[in-house]
Amino acid sequence: MSDKEHPQDGAADADNDTGTALVTDSSRVLIELDRVLAGRKNAPPDSSYVATLYSKGLNKILEKVGEECTETILAAKDLESGQRSGSAEVDRLKHDMVSETADLWFHCMLALQHLGCSHEDVLRELARRFGLSGIDEKNSRKP
To answer: Please, what are the domains in the chain?
Structure first.
């Protein structure tokens, strides 16, 4: 997904010297992104990419989650292939993987916000799982 497809509406601060986004506090970034997503919920559809998706409803949002999931999978496969072959393009492939993962997280957070959940709910669930084996955690789920 290109930056033109969905500008993230100031979700991160820019470094004035380099013009690149700095991430110094991941919690702050998630909180700010949640705030931006919540603020776009009732905005006119033509005001932002996020407002457009909200106006199209859950199915469109989930379609974007699926697209970004597929793009993340493909980027991971490309990166692994590049690493195995010793490709000179590994740095670009890593960037692609990170970029696609960011797009996936963004759209997952949009889906959560649309449904009245937040990243904090996900973080609480991840924290709950610390100290559990993956097998025990899966077995504890209700069928």
So the answer is: 26-127 (1.10.287.1080)
